Amino acid sequence: MLGTYEGNDLTGIGTSNDRPDVLDIDHLMAQALHDADLAREVLAMFLEQSGDMLRIVREAGGAMDRRNAAHRLKGSARAVGAFRVAAASESLEFLPEDADEPSLLDRIAALHASVAEARSAIAARLAGADARGL
Q1: pTM above 0.90, yes or no
Q2: Does domain 5-131 have CATH number 1.20.120.160?
Q3: How does pLDDT run across 95-121, given as a tens digit for each residue?
Q4: What is the distance between the alpha carbons of residues 79 and 73, in angstroms, rounded to a whole number?
């Protein structure tokens, strides 16, 4: 079944945009050229890949590797409208190389929290879409 998007109505993904910093559906739909099927596919890809991307950020061997991984996660988050993830990624991306360990750990923890929140919101939307037979 082909999903539709009219204004704030996204059949199969939901209409609530109460927390656009967590997941901005209007932004996602603009990125997906108002194609609900494509939006669901992009959300599913982010859900599947964001955990691996977060692991790469966390396990990076050095500041440059961590910066590059945070940059990739930031771009992916912006594409789906997960702006809190993008902000946390950017904060880590621009952390000075000589930053102390507590600062690094605080930013990684903030990134973890924002990714978990976005993944939860995405999973709920996709599960709701499945419950409607999409």
Answers
A1: no
A2: yes
A3: 999 999 999 999 999 999 999 999 999
A4: 10
